Amino acid sequence: QVHLVQSGGGSVQAGGSLRLSCAVSGRAVGSTTMGWFRQAPGKEREFVSVIWRNVDITSYAGSVKGRFTISRDNAKNTVTLQMNSLKPEDTAVYYCAASQLTTDLSLPQTYESWGQGTQVTVSS
């Protein structure tokens, strides 16, 4: 059973930066595909970023590419999402998620474990 606990987030002005962390227990983060999703009020949960298990391959949604960076720390068993140049449209609840799969990674149903969610608010 994989358990994910998120930390970080908060409020920032447009152009600022925030960092989200996801602590993983029950499985080695290096052998787990880890994704980040977000959900704004009244909208569906959307894919943000993913890092594949066992290889250092990452992918990003077009809306965050070049601004967000996903990384993992195998020693600490954590995954981090560094968010720079934040925009008001980045405002949402952000979730980390874990999967044993390596396909369809932009789909929420691919992931079997989820963090509790953390609010990110970007003001203009």
Structure, described:
With 124 residues, the protein is mainly β. It contains no helices and eleven strands. It is globular, with a radius of gyration of 13 Å.
Give the secondary structure arrangement, pairings included.
Blueprint: E1 3-8, E2 10-13, E3 18-25, E4 33-39, E5 46-51, E6 58-60, E7 68-73, E8 78-83, E9 92-99, E10 113-114, E11 118-123
Parallel strand pairs: 2-11
Antiparallel strand pairs: 1-3, 3-8, 4-5, 4-9, 5-6, 7-8, 9-10, 9-11
Radius of gyration: 13 Å
Low-confidence stretches: none
Helicity level, as a percent range?
under 10%
Specify the biggest β-sheet.
7 strands, mixed
What is the count of β-strands? Answer: 11
The string of secondary-structure elements, in order, is: EEEEEEEEEEE
Instruction: Kindly report the average pLDDT value.
Output: 97
Structural class by secondary-structure content:
mainly beta
Quote the beta fraction: over 45%
Distance between the termini: 40 Å
Rough outline: globular
Tell me the number of helical segments per DSSP (H or I, 4 or more residues long): 0
